[in-house]
Amino acid sequence: MSAFFPSRTVAIYMARLFLTRTFGILFGLVLVLQTLDLLSESGRILGTAGNGDAEVWRYVSLRAPQIISTFLPFSVLLGTVLTLITMNANSEVVALKASGLSAHQVLAPLVIASVGIALVTFAFNDRIVSRATAELSAWQKVNYGAMPPDRGDRANVWVRADNNLISADRISGRGEAARLGGITVYERNPDGGLRGLITAPNGLRQGDGWKVWPAKRFDVASGALTPLGATVVARGVTPDQFTLANVDGDALSFAGLRAAISDLEEAGRPTKSLEGVLWHKLSGPLSSVLMPLLGAVAAFGIARSGALFVRAVIGMALGFAYFMADKFALAMGNLGAYPPFLAAWAPFLLFLLIGEAVLLRTEE
φ and ψ at 102, to 5 degrees? Predict the structure, then answer.
């Protein structure tokens, strides 16, 4: 460790310079962006009967964590570039390299500080941002009005039972007390062809299946419609599989999303896009660790050569290119074009190699 940080004083000085600039930039960004966002939403909030200043501040408390989470990596990038430009302009980087430090040793305090930022970001996203996102999403669905208590009601739920597909227009209650409405059972052949349809307006749990009534069955081959009265369908399907609604990965913690993915897999529903979100909950905060490496090009080179501004632009361009690649990879993962792990981690690994290559090529 002493070889990695030859000077404890210099390491603390650089880390403090980096952190103060990063969080100063973040504060300014959040202040401006929150003000602009509030200007666009305050009309809708106050337009709902009974809302006033308290609801406006409630919106700010729910929206601010999202803005902080989104723009913290940008702030780390800008804080890195500003710190390194200042040190380069004051010949501090030249002095450090003249004392025998390598480029990696010069950047080490910033990397260690950014690891701390990544850990704080993960905890902040997991404990605060996910809860704020879930509450704000539910509040916006009722147009910033009074939110009714969540009784577990769900709508438009699909479940697979063996080779058949089952849909329910609505489901109320939880566990063994769950009740279905508007049930349609799609009976399929082993080759995937449709064999028949069973429809019923009511359903409830019975044994290991679901009793539906009054049911009718339509036979695809003959075109006959047969009344069945009360019958049991969906054997082996648990109430939890029916009560799963559309899962918003951003509104769940890491552990909560992992459990939801497991439940969805048991229900036979697609999970690839959510798996990408799950992996990105790890790779996203770690993007802060990349920023000192991508912005390092601003640290080196002689300030009086006139290329300092160009180097700063290159550093910022590399950082913004990473954010664009990250968003693109996530979008491709949601479409199923990329595997979930690749969609979340490929931009991080790619730009880690690019940053190392630029640093080694120019300074080492």
Answer: -80, 170
d(CA 26, CA 110): 17
How much is the pLDDT for 230? 93
As a dihedral over the C-alpha atoms of residue 328, residue 251, residue 335, residue 287, rounded to 10 degrees, the angle is: 30
pLDDT greater than 60 at residue 303: no
Confidence of residue 148 (pLDDT cuts 50, 70, 90): low
Helix or strand run (H / E) with residue 171: strand 164-172
The pLDDT, as a whole number, for residue 316 is: 86
Q: Look up tokens 């952190």; give the residue.
A: 19
DSSP string, 173-241: S-GGG-EEEEEEEEEE-TTS-EEEEEEEEEEEEETTEEEEEEEEEEETTT--EEEEEEEEE-TT--HHH
